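Write out the 3D structure for:
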Amino acid sequence: MNSERLTIADVERLLSNPSEDTRAAVAEKVASQFSDVELAPRERELAHEILGFLVHDVAVSVREALSRCLTGNEAAPRNIVLQLARDIDQVAIPVLERSPVLTDEDLVGLVYYGSPAKQCAIAGRPEVGAPVSEAIAHRGDRSAVLTLVHNSGAVINEAAATMLVKRYADDADVAAPLVQRGELPALLVERLIAMVSEQMREYLVAQHEVDGRVAASLEEQARERTTTDAITRMSNDDLRALVAQLAENGRLTATLILRAACAGEVRFVEAAFAELTAVPDERLWRLIHDVGALGFRAVYARAGMPEALYPAFRRVLDTYHAVRSSDGTLDVALFRFHVLEGLRETFEQVDAEDLDTMIDKLARLAVAPQGAKKQSVA
């Protein structure tokens, strides 16, 4: 780009030799002037007038040169940038991707009336506000939606996510990245996880002729692993809401609770047993952590957990208490290493190289029904 200052000679050259190349060169030079804070008022006015003339140029290369040069310019005239943003894709995309002068209101309108390519450019901006994400969720092409859900700089609120789930209920490529986003409400995350894992089971049965029982087992494992990963990013309130919904849908399983425990998410373990036993939080905490083995044994029995998995829970809790530092922090990698070693020692007959595989195999031991009659806690 030619970054020299615009002079009267440039204007004369534009009038005497109005070729496409000359107009494009002048367009670049004029556009560059708007990042110059020392530009005099009359010079800025002149540059604005020339931009207003060139933005309507019949040659695409001229308008494209303007768009490229105004892309990241905070001082660019908004009316000129908007005109470029409404132009053909080739001209519009540079400013749609990065121009800071476009407002959320501008971008929402451009989503609703723009092409899929324009929608993709907007969805991939470094920062995408919630109103723009909602517009893409409602009217965006699938390619724009995929760009949005993979964009860590996009704010996808509950309204946008709910619309995406409604529009793409059978599209795991859209749902799966949504599950990984930290800002979504816990209840919606659980719904997405269930949807994606169910699609995986149906795919295995239909496309790979996997036995239905095996596919169902793989579905549950995938769902629980994804749920455990989501738990680590949740606030305490969201975690509580998730536990309640999991219990209501019959998905608060012993193996899910064990997976969370093995990930160091003792918050989830406490919330899960509180949900299953209706024991008040403070008393439950003491029974799990303070009163020794008998306290947790009573809680475990009241929750109707499978007896075969009690030694696994006991080992994980003992490791948690042993590994956690005095200030309450937990080195999760170290914790998981010692948990795996402890479970190997406790279940000598189970051969597993990692924790997830260990839990998958221990799940076969969990044969007791989850709805067993609750016992009283001493």
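Confidence is low (pLDDT under 50) at residues 368-378.
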